[in-house]
Amino acid sequence: MKLDRYDLKILEILSRDGRITKSRLAEAINLSVSPCWERVRRLEKTGIIEGYSARINAEALVRRTPVWVQVELKAHNAASFARFEALVHATPEVTECVAVGGGVDYLIKVEADSIDAYQRLIDGWLTGDAGIERYFTYIVTKAVKRPVPGDCLKDLG
């Protein structure tokens, strides 16, 4: 699907404010309400807009300890990767996980109740069937930069 400047502006605005009214959105992109809303519906139907949600400040609800972990597996085959990735999906404390190249297999963000809770999680993985050869733990001391809604669109326009 080819996106024009109106579509990109709609995506930018909705990524920052999914609750904006139809009329304010139309005004912000200099279109009348009907054509603007038709564009939004088209973006939804094509799957470019997957849904709308609220950004929740998790720290306001419960204080979690963020930890980044580098993981290298013992075996490098499809079954080992699939087993480990299934474990990651089944672990609610894991909030992000990416497979990477360059000597390490995965970078994982764990948000645990405490450092002790994090260590118990890792100990369980090591004594279980996770297939971990070695891991390195990095305790987050402060967030320097976080994702900003709509930033993914800046290179499209």
Automatic annotation (TrEMBL):
Q: Which InterPro entries match?
A: ArsR-like_HTH, AsnC-type_HTH_dom, Dimeric_a/b-barrel, Tscrpt_reg_AsnC-like, Tscrpt_reg_AsnC/Lrp_C, WH-like_DNA-bd_sf, WH_DNA-bd_sf
Keyword flag Transcription regulation = yes
**One Gene Ontology CC term in the entry:** cytosol
A Gene Ontology biological process in which this protein takes part is: regulation of DNA-templated transcription
Looking up Pfam families in the UniProt record yields: AsnC_trans_reg, HTH_24
Keywords noted in UniProt: DNA-binding, Transcription, Transcription regulation
Q: Which domain of life is it from?
A: Bacteria
Q: Report domain HTH asnC-type positions.
A: 3-64
What GO molecular function annotations does the UniProt record carry, in alphabetical order?
sequence-specific DNA binding
Give the PANTHER family listed for this entry.
Answer: LEUCINE-RESPONSIVE REGULATORY PROTEIN, TRANSCRIPTIONAL REGULATOR AZLB
Q: What protein name does the entry list?
A: Winged helix-turn-helix transcriptional regulator
